[in-house]
Q: What sequence folds into this?
């Protein structure tokens, strides 16, 4: 299914997906998204987005918050988390995006959103068998 861009006509939030969200996660208004072209979406995103990548500490805080109300947590071994996050940031430097450090992207030039960290690790076989993402950054809560 092809993904498209949508813009919230109330707050300007940009969404990329097969369908627009019913409720805008930014302004909470209902049924306010309209489909827009990629050019408009990119201009809105780049105008509002910082050109600087998120500092490592902010990334760590974001992935920690991502664990809230979910059935997973960050690996309690801080040294391991540090190593994985360093790998993510090495990829950011080399490939321009925060790619998974333990899986190889098919093409560094082509955006592969399935390999961005955090990925959809709950769909991985290793999650079901071992209760962790490929890199062990996230683990299943017991
Ligand atoms: S496997 Fe783990 S470290 Fe790799 S992208 Fe997914 S969540 Fe990040
Ligand atoms: Zn909105």
A:
């Amino acid at each position: 299914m092809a993904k498209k861009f949508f813009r919230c006509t109330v707050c300007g939030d940009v969404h990329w997906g097969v369908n627009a969200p019913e409720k805008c996660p930014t302004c909470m208004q209902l049924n306010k998204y309209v489909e827009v072209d990629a050019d408009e979406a990119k201009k809105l995103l780049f105008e509002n987005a910082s050109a600087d990548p998120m500092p490592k500490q902010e990334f760590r805080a974001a992935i920690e918050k991502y664990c809230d109300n979910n059935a997973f947590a960050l690996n309690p071994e801080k040294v391991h988390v540090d190593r994985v996050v360093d790998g993510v940031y090495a990829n950011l430097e080399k490939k321009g995006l925060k790619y998974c450090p333990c899986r190889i992207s098919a093409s560094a030039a082509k955006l592969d959103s399935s390999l961005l960290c955090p990925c959809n690790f709950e769909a991985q076989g290793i999650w079901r068998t071992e209760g962790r993402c490929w890199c062990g950054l996230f683990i299943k809560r017991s």
Notes: The helical segments are 38-48, 56-66, 78-95, 125-130. The domain at 56-140 is CATH 3.90.460.10 (Ferredoxin Thioredoxin Reductase). The mean pLDDT is 92.
